[in-house]
Structures are given as C-alpha cells and as structure tokens.
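Checked the freezer inventory, then went back to the computational side. Two predictions to log before the end of the day. The first one is the construct we discussed on Monday; recording sequence and tokens without edits.
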Amino acid sequence: MPRSVNSVAKRARRKKVLKQAKGYFGRRKNVWTVAKNAVDKAMQYSYRDRRNKKRTFRALWITRINAGARTYGMSYSQFMGKVKANNIELNRKVLADLAMNNPEAFKAIVEKVK
C-alpha cells in the first residue's frame, strides 16, 4: 500500500506561517525554513515583551511621579510613603497621569500628604 501524506494540512500550516511572516525583509517572508525560524523568534519576543511592557510602564510612571514630587520638594520614596500612610488609594498610573496632565490636582495631593 502506498504511503499516505496529508498534504492539505501541511500546506495549511505553511500558509499560516508565511502569512504571519508577511512584511518581513528578504527571504524571511517567502522561504519556508527561514520564515518559520523568523516567526518562531518573533513569537518568543512578543511573549517576553508582553511581560516587559508592564515593567517599562511602571518605571515610566515612577519617573513621572518623582519629577512631579520633586517640584514640591519631596522625593519619590517620601511621597509614596506618605501617600500610603494617609490611605490615599491612587495607583502609580493615576498619580503619574495627574503629575503630567493635571498639576493642580497633583499639588493638592502633595499638600494633603505633607
């Protein structure tokens, strides 16, 4: 009996990977083996960076809060310590947004915790 291969599924898998590689440069977009490696690596990066994005944003928020607090003579750690001590339940994302876009509201928070 001749060997049976599922060419339909094989072609579908390859088409799926080549579709994901659309927009890549050179042979990465149209040669199966190169495209497969490129897509695998891209998926690893996207998985890793979905987690790194959270760290990056937290660091950005901390930087913005620190800059806002220093304009009123406090460091970031002093400010956040006093915010927690006064039971102000605003997270870093909201505080950073206030420091950037609404300085008078941020100043009111600083005056309240001083």
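The second is the one RB wanted added to the comparison set:
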Amino acid sequence: MERPNAWLTYSDADMQDLETVAKKYRHFLNVGKTERECITQIVKEAEEAGYVSLEEKVKNGEDLKAGDKVYQVGMQKIIALYHIGEDDLAEGMNILCAHIDSPRLDIKQNPLYEDTDLAYLDTHYYGGVKKYQWVALPMAMHGVIAKKDGTVVNVTIGEDEDDPVVYITDLLIHLAGQQMAKKASEAVEGEKLDILIGSQPLKDLPDDKKKEAVKENVLRILNEKYGVEEEDFLSAELEIVPAGKARDCGLDRSMIAGYGQDDRVCAYTSLLALLEMEAPKRTSCCLLVDKEEIGSVGATGMQSHFFENSVAEVLDAMGQYSDLRLRKALKHSSMLSSDVSAGYDPAFAEAFEKKNSAYLGRGIVLNKFTGARGKSGSNDANAEYVARVRRIFDDHKVCFQTAELGKVDVGGGGTIAFIAALYGMEVIDSGVSVLSMHAPWEVTSKADVYEAKKAYKAFLLDA
C-alpha cells in the first residue's frame, strides 16, 4: 500500500521545526565522525538537558528515583541514557537503540612507509564498503593516539578550511584498460587503499635516514604537532573518513548529503526524542552502540554485556536489584532497533521490489524483518507488536512506511534487533531510508529525519 509523501502534510510551523531538527542533525554529523566524537557530543547535549553520570551519582551515594536522568558510557564508544519513569522498572522500559559506528578506513598498527619519494599510511577498511568509491577523494584523519605515559592525544586533520587533506590515489584513465576490465569488487584492492600523506623530504639527515627522508619529515611534523613518535602508532585508533561538512542536497534543499548517516541519522534523532521527554510514566532509554558494521562484537558492541550490566546498576541504584528483576526488566521492555533502510533508487530499480521498498520523503521505515537468504539473521517482529507500533505512529500523526531490504535473493543485511530480542523483549527495526548507503557520502530526506524524531518520541511516550 502506497503511503503519502510527508512533505504534503506540513504546515509552516512544521517546516520551521523540520529545519531546526535538520540543522541540529547536520551539526552532529560534522562534529561526530568517529564513535568517540559522537559520544563526546551526546554527553554534552545530554548534560545540557539535565542528565548526569550514573557513576557519579552512585559514587556520591545518591539513590535513583522517578524523574532522574542519568547516562553511562563504556570505553568512550557506547552509551546508555535513562529517564527514570514512575512505573516499576521490572515492568520494562521503552528503548531506542541505534549504532554510531560507520564504514571507514582504519590506520594499521604499523602503517607508515615511503615508496619512491612518497609517504603513505597503510589501512584496513572497516565494515562493508565498495572499495572503488573511496579513492580520489579529499579525506580527513580523526582519532586518538595513546602514549605509554598514559596521555591520549586527539587527532583531527583535514576538516578546518586551512587544514591539509589526505588522499588515496587511483590509476589514470589513460592507463586503466586492465583495471576497467575487472569486476567492480576487484578494481581496487583493499591493500591498495593506502593514504598519501607526504612528498617533501627532510634535509640534512644522516646517511642511514636519507632513503626515507619523506617519511622522516612526516614524523617530524607529527612530533611537533602532537608530540608522538612512530612507535605510538601501535596504540593509536585513527580513522580515515571523507573530509568536509554535511550539506543540504537538492536545489530545493530537501535532502542532506553527508558521511556516516548510517546509522547516525537514527542515533541522533533517537537522542533528540529522549531529551524532549518530560516525566515519563514508563522509563525511557536510549542505547547507542558501537561495532554494528562488523557484527556488533567486542566490549562496545550490542553483543557485549554493557547494556545488561548498565540496567543492573540502575536497578541497584534504585535499591531494587535482583537477578530476577533484571531479567524481567529486559524481557518486558519494548525496543525500536533504530537502523536505516535502503531507499528506493530509480537509477537501480532492478534491485528493488517497488511494493515493499522504502521511499525518500514518505516517513520513517518499519522493517518487520531484515536478513538475507530466507531472512537469515533476522529478528522478524511479531505481528501484534507491529500492529501496536502502527497504532502509536497513527495516534501521533507520524508518517511511516514499511519495507524490505531489496528484492528477495538480491542481497540483504542485518541489524542489532535479533540480539536485543534474545532477552525476550519485543523489537522491530525502525529507521530512515538512505540513498547510496555505505558510500563515503550518503543522502537522506529532511522529512524522514523529522518524522524519525517524531516517531521515536511517540514510541517513548506510548509503547
């Protein structure tokens, strides 16, 4: 069933609200290009809205009670925020969960080398990427370098107007006959995604250093600016991402083009929805996780025990902890797995089934199931839960649509929904449709961003 275009429903006041949300979201994309940067901005906005650290509250011997707003951060890459409600926590929470990691290139632990008077950094790509899309673009370097003395240096190169950018070369078209004959997946190899970072040699070096004079010059620059040495790369987390700010897209400014919208578009609208909550009856939670793009693994991914442990600490701070109450709190919760969906692209219509596709401008997308090869890896939400979410959205005049991720047997993908469902809670995927998903620059509709924020707030209020 075709759903109406959200743009046609907006009043002048709605349009003002929409532009406010879009402006805040663009800013978030610009200041949060890594997980650590996202967490820093999230904590800043949460504290401005009255949230306090759960650890600090416990350390000060303060009990949690209805109305309190707290957050807990893990390894600067995962965060859970809670607005404590009046109802017994063992009766469950309303949870919005999204991921804040995005496809990128990671610098290897032994990355720096020189070849023919050019200096490079070796990389390992992170998440599912079309490798040929990441060449011949201005790129920026973000991340941290941890030194043995315990200090951590923040690195950002390539975002300010006066900054240099880094770059991945591609073969000129005049000599690319063999390259062009390869499959797209083979045209650019992973080991060829090395970052060009210098070409000027350092003068007056001893003979044993002259063969790597360009590399030595790069090391001199890094040492002068950040106080680091080559060995410090061993304990660095440096990410290579597209340089430049998110921008309005289209002559009508109806869309946003920017890096990392999968899944920061859902993460930020989930955060906005939570921060707007006032005195919830049922505890509201926003969980923003790492590592989804590589299987939700590690201590900061959804498969970790971070969330379970965090809820246990909340219960304990309320004087209500027991293992059974923890299990009940998780089981009785309702969640929106806030993750993006593939926007229908008429340029590639052969990959989509039109009746069951997500369209830009028609509101937030409900994916009853994701997965591939017969729904493999999918949560597949219960029909009764889908009906309940539909009712909530309709009651709050949220524009929404339903979709699958492309044609059957064409491909597929997964989210964190099935992991949360292991607790027995009701979960459904619900997010924004994206064009060029996983490309260096992705496109979303401002209307869908706005409807996502409305949908998430409605869910927190009434689920």
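For RB: Residues 30 and 245 are 5 Å apart (CA to CA). Residues 12-31 form the longest helix (20 residues). Let me know if you want it refolded.
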